[in-house]
Amino acid sequence: MQNLEITGAGRSVSTQTDSMTGQIPRLSKVNLFTLLSLWMELFPAVEGQRQKSQEKEEGKCGHLGDNEEMARVSTDRKQVKKTGLVVVKNMKIVDLHCSSEELHAGKIALIKHGSRLKNCDLYFSRKPCSACLKMIVNAGVNRISYWPADPEISLLSETSTSEDAKLDAKAVERLKSNSRAHVCVLLQPLVCCMMQFVEETSYKCDFIQKMAKTFPDTNIDFYSKCRQERIKEYELLFFVSNEELHKQILMTIGLENLCENPYFSNLRQNMKDLILLLATVASSVPICKHYGFYCDKTEQSNEIHNQSLPQEIARHCMVQARLLAYRTEDHKIGVGAVIWAEKKSQNCDGTGMMYFIGCGYNAFPVGSEYADFPNMDDKQKDREIRKFRYIVHAEQNALTFRCQEIKPEEKSMIFVTKCPCDECVPLIKGAGIKQIYTGDIDVGRKKADISYMRFGELEGVSKFTVSKIHIFFSNMLPINVVWYPATYFNLIIPTLLKSFNKVLSQFIFMCKHLPNYKFSV
Ligand SMILES: Nc1ccn([C@H]2C[C@H](O)[C@@H](COP(=O)(O)OP(=O)(O)OP(=O)(O)O)O2)c(=O)n1
């Protein structure tokens, strides 16, 4: 971990402020929406779905013995790719979805929004199938953007139904040419220095720093290792490494105009850059066996024992916030925030019980022009010309532009990349948000214009910050599960029962066959 202080992505980095003062590159909205759609495709499968697909794989589903049905299910699963979706209205994110076992992302959006999809822009991580497209164009959407790789009905799966995939691609084209909605690929090249900036800031972000602080002896640069792994993983998922194959796909999905150079190589370069950026941001909230977002007070974790999120979901939402932070207008530091809530019962969405409430990043009031407000920070002497009285914080924007009400009876949570300041803490509590997932590097800091004193004293809202899990429990639990008593029992008891069942059935089997064994002996 000592390496963390000196190297990042193979070269030395100075601090964000040293290297890029006053010239922070900004992620375009289109690229932010595209990245979030890709990221939503990676939303961790929820427990119910995981179990169901496991059962299907083991042949334990309701249609046990019905070979045809089994074959259809497994072909379907191979052929239909999970898809992420970002719903945007007036250039603001109004919802985040992903396919579930039963429903495609487009259908979920339709169920949830109906005709409110009118005039919305939809960003898909894969070109949607005809069944989704016909409904969403019918709802009057304005624009449908999709990632130009393997579509939702996969053209890469080697199943007997690949003909169907081609037929579906044709139907999609027909729907596209006969609809008013603009169905297109919206990818923009990253602005100059964006990648370097993301590398530097990811490496320096609160979560990595916190781990570096509390894990000082290890010299494993797990950030770089994690990043390399993510790059490989996401390239496999979102990229078609074979150029010819990629061209064939583009031709089949009506993008023959992108198959010629320089368009083809530009497209691939833009795709690669976005994948690299996503992998870099994702590695800034690392998956590490003994670390996670934990509530440090035991009484507090007991109180909310039934409510904590699985680590992989908490981490997923924090990466959403990290992506949002790259749209900041603050030249010094980007902050992102996203609010989710949990329904009491299962959602039709691939996000399980979780549903999106709102998101934001720190910026000047809507509509302000470049020279309207000062950008100076606390290092400048004159307090009158500092930014702090003008900038709207990430949490404030997330609350202002939320698309759903925060219901007092439901568990709602905010994920914010920087510790909530004294201005925001009462807002979060007042809004009825039940949990805060954040970094705590700033806790207790006092400055003339912005301080972080109230977070530590905050009561009635559970605070989850990156910390080390107790070794005893971490060894017993799966890596990505938040430790709290209920989860512990939820996981351990069924596992014990399962093992007990197995032993019991083996014992019965042995008893039944014992005479035979004796006979043969
Ligand atoms: N939870 C938070 C915390 C802060 N901010 C925003 C408001 C400001 O735009 C910026 C605060 O900027 P600072 O200059 O205080 O941040 P630094 O951490 O860079 O300060 P310092 O240089 O003192 O370390 O972050 C936010 O949106 N949400």
TrEMBL record:
InterPro entries: APOBEC/CMP_deaminase_Zn-bd, CMP_dCMP_dom, Cytidine_deaminase-like, dCMP_deaminase-rel, Deoxycytidylate_deaminase_dom. GO terms for molecular function: cytidine deaminase activity; dCMP deaminase activity; zinc ion binding. SUPFAM superfamilies: Cytidine deaminase-like. Its cofactor is Zn(2+). It comes from the Eukaryota. Signal peptide: none annotated. Its EC number is 3.5.4.5. Residues 65-163, 312-452 form the CMP/dCMP-type deaminase domain. Keywords: Hydrolase, Metal-binding, Repeat, Zinc. It catalyses: 2'-deoxycytidine + H2O + H(+) = 2'-deoxyuridine + NH4(+); cytidine + H2O + H(+) = uridine + NH4(+). GO terms for cellular component: cytoplasm. Residues 12-21 have a biased composition (Polar residues). Residues 1-21 are annotated as: Disordered. Belongs to the cytidine and deoxycytidylate deaminase family. Catalyzes the deamination of cytidine and deoxycytidine into uridine and deoxyuridine, respectively. May play an important role in testicular development and spermatogenesis. This is Cytidine and dCMP deaminase domain-containing protein 1.
